[in-house]
Amino acid sequence: MSNNESYWYDVANAQVVRATERQDAWLGPFGTADEAEEAPQTFIAHARAFLDSEEGRRYLDLAKEEHPDIDTSWL
Fold first, then answer.
1. Burial bucket for residue 38 (CB in 10 Å: 0-12, 13-18, 19+)
2. φ/ψ (deg, to 5) at 74
3. Which of 74, 56, 31 is nearest to 9 (CA)?
4. Where are the domains of the chain?
5. pLDDT tens digits for the chain (75 residues)?
């Protein structure tokens, strides 16, 4: 890997790629291929932690006010 390349997780194809620049539907950059491979689980964990926080709950409350039919049963 060149000094300018990073690891990315390609969400559309569910695979790790190496490149110098980000493309649409890529998460990253990551320092290792293993980190990139774990990207979906990492991002879900961070999203859940945010939604469980006070700030996240305020955000959800605002979303529910604007969209009363929003489904939050998955939380």
1. middle
2. -75, -10
3. 31
4. 6-66
5. 557 899 999 999 999 999 999 999 999 999 999 999 999 999 999 999 999 999 999 998 999 999 999 887 777
